[in-house]
Amino acid sequence: MAEQISRRTFIKAGVAVGAAVAAGTYFEWQGNNIPAAVQKGTALYDVLIIGSGGAGMRAALEAAKDKNIKVAIMTKLIPTRSATTMAQGGMNGCTGVTDSKDTPESHAFDTVKGGDYLCDQDAVEYFAENAGKIIYEMDYYGYPYHRQEDGSFHQRKMGGSSHARAAYYADESGLATVHTLFEQCLEQNVEMISECQMLEIVVKDEKLSGVIAVDMRSGNIVSVPAKTVIVATGGYGRAYWIRTTNPYSSTGDGIAACLNIGVPFKDPEMVQFHPTGLAINGVLLSESSRSEGAYLLNKNGERFMKKYAPDKMELATRDIVARSIETEISEGRGIGEGLNAAVYLDFRHIPKEIIKERLGQVYDLSLRFEGVDITEKPVPIRCSCHYSMGGIDVIDYKTCATKVPGVFAAGECSCVSIHGANRLGANSLSEVLMFGKTAGIGAPAYAKKVGYVGDKEALNAALAKWNKTFEEVTARTSGPRVVELRDKMAASMWFKAGVYREENQLQEGLKEIDDLIKEYKICYVGDASRNYNTAFMNYIELGNLLLVSKAIIMGAIARKESRGGHSRKDFPKRDDKNFLKHTIISKVGDEFKTEYRDVVITKFKPAERTY
Prior knowledge:
Oligomer: single chain
Strand content: 15-25%
Number of domains: 3
Radius of gyration: 23 Å
Distance between the termini: 48 Å
């Protein structure tokens, strides 16, 4: 048996086991989920990172290189349970390893074209020039890339890319990313504040004081002073609830917190619907499926993508493939009805050994949830909310700073803007690592230069306010239930602001969300206990999602064109004259306002996007 295990397989297994053992050892040895100084209220961090995904941990790892900088990661889960673990396809970067003709300029052009020219091209160029270096850095940290015979990592071509530039680990690229980074963070003694939900970033007179959070284990609400905060809380796919590939933790916490302190939400209407979520529950089947050759078929057995993208076929950009699927379903060439309607993804022509080696998770998910062995039968799939191209408005892509001094943002919760109106497959992992590192340089530099300018009295006042809120909310004995409001929100978002949009439906959706926000103020939680009060956590997350949902619909109403992931039936054409600009949604008190900012264009002039 031992002779059948290759050296590379042994190393891969060692890395995975090592990370798992390290994680278990860490929590066993440390005992508590929150450092003693945080519990006592005596902590002061130079850099406090909210979120333990790829961006958060890469930021921490970079900041921790300076031993004079005190760094901590706060996460509402445990550090290895972030949404990054669900990324499957790989990370894009020009290395020339698999395709010697690839260049950073080609990567930049593919990204800008894929983003339907809504990307800020100076930021994209910066990203493309450095993404390949990120791949090599992860290799140095021990990332178990899929290897070629000569030992070099292999790169595959993903949707919308002109070259094979996605380095990967099977179809579990995000999981390997998180464990690789976590191991390195342990090595650098980065403090972890785990199972701790952020409630508020405290800013007074544009001066950052710190963060208010609730320790889920004890139920204690704590204040954490910080010189800088890096928000890396991920996306908001749960606004669409079951029709999303996102985990239950993707509730837009960081975006909502930033809206509440005056940091705008940029391009909120740009929601990406991944073409291949399982029909039954929205769980992602990786784009690596189509990269490895899977076909999309309608109920008649036709490869329908030849009608919509005859050159790229299944490897057209995600927005094009998603709309093609929804068109097939709406015109009667799908299977099933309502939310259960679907088309097929067919793997039967792909050698079984390739499926087992490179698409093991896809195989397992299809079998586990749909009961389909993809080597024998095609699996039903439908579009599923997958990614937020919009996010917290980052105003300096070389530091990841926002308009509020001391507050930085990175990863999916942020908008640099790299992805524009549509993200290319495998650009996400590269982005979270690239700009996580960038924030991990920018925030410590600011902390050392400015120091702590916060107001401890403002922190104490916010702490008292949240303790009062907990008591008042959990004491209610009647009112609409959180789960009822959540399900109504999801229905409004899917049917009124989904893959296809139009004015009447969007206006109806906005009214429905406004009504839900009013009901939220009197809703019933049903649990007054302190420790592990997940009902209160669900309440907090719903409030965040409602703010995010309102911004999404407002942005969609204002953008009277179709571009990338935003598709208006009543305005089916792209309108560069009026809408080659970013949507900027701000919140002042309870009121939202919409403004615009010009897109940065350098060398790639807007052109018709064809595949």
